[in-house]
């Protein structure tokens, strides 16, 4: 990356902030259910939500952003594993909270590729140089892509499937106001398709 702040750095920081907002919502929900004896905000909430140009180490832009991604990913996983544990009913409730959070974003898209790009503007998938999502096919009503690597499961102590279950719920919520649906026909393969009339 360059040695100065550019649009890509703000774009990536906004993705981190979106995940922080999801963490905030899950903390709020879990606290309202009385699922923890400790203060979840102190334990898992972000300590600093200032604008990028107020907080970044400009002498190490790439490293600073990478550390923020790892911090957000780690706290997200730790929060879910702490409050849900092995209780499927709690995980189901957290999926509903993630769906509701996604739906509250009122995402709009008129084509499948536009929906893909709207999701890509929000969802954290490592650094742009990681090139995690590789598009295979694209037209107005359908876009398909492969996940080239799994950057999330390492934070979930052997429960990476929980990350992807929550992500599915979040994306379903994000797309709920559109004419498009998100599916995963096989491990690491995804598509956004126009919903049947």
Task: Describe the overall structure.
With 197 residues, the chain is an alpha+beta fold. It has helices at residues 7-32, 40-44, 52-55, 61-84, 88-103, 112-120, 160-174, and strands at residues 133-139, 142-147, 180-186, 189-194. Strands 1-2-4-3 form a 4-stranded antiparallel beta sheet. α1 packs across α5 (88-103) and α5 runs parallel beside α7 (160-174). It is globular and about 45 Å long. The relative contact order is 0.14.
Strand fraction: 5-15%
What is the radius of gyration computed over CA atoms, rounded to a whole number of angstroms? 17 Å
Shape: globular
Percent of residues in helices: 40-55%
Query: Tally of extended strands?
Result: 4
Helix-strand string: HHHHHHEEHEE
Indicate how many domains the architecture comprises. Answer: 2
User: So how many helices?
Assistant: 7
- The CA-CA distance between the termini, in Å, is 45 Å
Mean pLDDT: 95
Q: pLDDT under 50 segments (min length 5)?
A: none
Structural class by sheet pairing and helices: alpha+beta
As laid out across the biggest beta sheet, the strand order is 1-2-4-3
- Please describe the biggest sheet, giving its number of strands, its sense, and whether it closes into a barrel: 4 strands, antiparallel
